[in-house]
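Ticket #4471: structure export looks truncated?
Reporter: QA, pipeline team
Priority: medium

Steps to reproduce: submit the single chain below to the structure queue and open the exported record.
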Amino acid sequence: MAAADQEPHASAVRPQSYQDESYLHGFLGTVGDLQKAGVLQDVVLEVEGRRFPCHRLVLSAASPYFRAMFTGDMAESRQKTVVLQGLNAGVFGEILSYIYSGILHVSLDKVQPLYQAADLLQLDYVRDTCSSYMTMNVERSTCVDLYKFANVFSIDIVLKACLECSSKYFVEVASSEEFCSLSVNQLTEIISHDELDVKEETTVWEAVVRWVQHSREDRLTHLPSILPYIRFNLLTPDNREAILEHPLVRKDPGSNELLLMNPQEGKYITCSYKIDDLPPFHAMTVTSDNNIYILDAMYRYDTSQNRWCKRSPPTILPNVKTAVAMGTEIFCTDYDFTQTMVYDTEADRWQKLQAPQSPF
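Actual output as written to the record:
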């Protein structure tokens, strides 16, 4: 018989790898038992005066934060007791329980400090689990509180759920005490949501008034930046006038507000000015780049720079009656519709057009 016939096929001696699932669970269980028994612990973590004896190896394996602390050149790598700042002792106990057992206990009253601790200690599983738990528990009574927390930590899935909930139940949410604790940026994000469910836009204005009145002295200055988020195009003329004549809007007699609409984007733009800074004017418009032009004296309000600047005046058209912006050009006529000019916003240049036939 040939030698080749006497040897087993190559596939019969191929090496194999095996994973002992019971070892993985048993190992973690043994580590937990060592922790409970207080055996082989080589470091003490102190949080709010409470001491937690632990194992450097276990902490380093579980958390990149502790791995950097104990394996680098940090002073903590040589200390027997390490004081941790910015953590709650009770919450840290829950974190240690997870590290040594793999089991995480989450409740609504603990989820925010748990997330905050996990974010500091770089525990991705805890952080992701807390995010999912918050998302599942977004409702009318919790959405503002969870929204504020998610806003600070940029937790997108929670933010999205909270905005959807606050938009769907805006009337109820806006009447809560928590609503008045929102920052100005948080307030404008909520009231500008595309899915905001209100029967009348006056409801949004009433919520804004309530928010301002909650801390009037501090918040009144924010009102000009909030007004553009009110959908004035959904208001009746009487309601629009009522808002613009409201005591809060007209609080400062030494300043005025310009409120104009960019029809291409369907957005309202507001800016303030001192009465003495600008001469009397009648004609104005908003360009596609959201800049406001006063055509009588030719001033431009640059929204990106938040300032006014002087531009070339229409010397042969001293009395501008109408102004319409189209792209980078503004078309103007006089009071009697006898002269027409076009202004190039990029070149800062005027050009006279052929006069239209007077309709009178």
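Status: closed, not a bug. The export was complete when the record was re-opened. Leaving a note from the reviewer for reference: The mean pLDDT is 83.
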